[in-house]
Amino acid sequence: MTRYTSATPDDRQEMLDAIGVSAVDELFEQIPEPLRLDHPLALPDGLSEAEVYERLAALADRNADAETQVCFVGAGMYDHYVPAIVDAITSRSEFLTPYTPYQPEISQGGLQVMFEFQTAMSELTGLPVSNAGLYEGPSSVASAGYLAIGATKRRRFVVSRGVHPHSRETLRTYSVGYGAEVVEVGLEGGLTDAAALAEAVDGETAAVFLQSPNFLGAVEDVEALGAAAKEQGALLIVACDPMTLGILKPPGECGADIALGEGQPLGNRLDFGGPSFGFFCATEAQIRRMPGRIAGETEDVDGRRGFVLALQTREQHIRREKATNNICTAQALNALGAMVHLAWLGRQGFRELGELLVRRTAYARQRLAAVDGVELLHEAPVAREFAVRLEAPVDRVLDRLAERGIAAGYPLGRNYPEFEDGLLVAITERRTKAQIDELAEALGAAIAAERGGPAGEGAVEAEIVEGVA
Amino acid sequence: MALTETPMQAETAQTIFEKSKRGRRAAALPATEVPERPLAELIPENLLRGEPPRLPEIAEPEIVRHYNRLSRRNFDLDTGFYPLGSCTMKHNPRLNERVAALPGHARLHPAQDPRRAQGALELMWLLQESLSEICGLPHVSLQPSAGSHGELAGLLLTRAYHADRGEERTKVLAPDTSHGTNPASVTMAGYEVVKVATNERGGVEMDDLRAKLGENEGEVACLMLTNPNTLGVFDEHIAEIASLIHEAGGTLYYDGANLNAVMGHSRPGDMGFDIVHVNLHKSFSQPHGGGGPGAGPIAVSDRIEPYLPKPQVVRHESSNGHGPSFDLDFDRPKSIGRLRGFQGNFGVFVRSYAYILSLGGDGLAEASETAVLNANYLKARLAEGRAGERLPIAFDRHCMHEFVLSGKPMKRELGLATLDLAKRLLDFGFHPPTVYFPLLVDEALMVEPTETETKESLDGFAEAVEKILTEAEDKPDLAQNAPYTTPVRRLDEVKATRQPVVRQKLD
Question: Which of B105, B339, B360 sits opposite A173 (nearest CB)?
Answer without folding.
Answer: B339
